[in-house]
Design brief:
The chain has about 60 residues and is α+β, with helices and mostly antiparallel strands. The chain is built from three helices and three strands; from the N terminus they run ββαααβ. Strand 1 and strand 2 form a beta hairpin. The protein is globular. About 10% of the residues are buried.
């Protein structure tokens, strides 16, 4: 079973789906999409002056 993700930019939902579906919808490579899920990217986003302009990826399978 593939993991499901929700991708946001600020309040806007960009897409919901698997890694492959989201990467295709965003027009980026799968490796680029995976970059957005990494802890290093999340730290950069948290330190940004305006994090709402950054992509945020949430793994829906991790939510309880």
């Amino acid at each position: 079973m593939s993991k499901e993700y929700a991708v946001y930019r600020g309040e806007e939902v960009i897409c919901i789906g698997t890694e492959q579906e989201c990467a295709a919808k965003m027009g980026i490579k799968l490796l680029s999409f995976r970059h957005y899920t990494m802890p290093s990217y999340k730290k950069l986003r948290a330190k940004a002056k305006n994090p709402d302009k950054w992509i945020m990826v949430i793994n829906l399978d991790d939510e309880d």
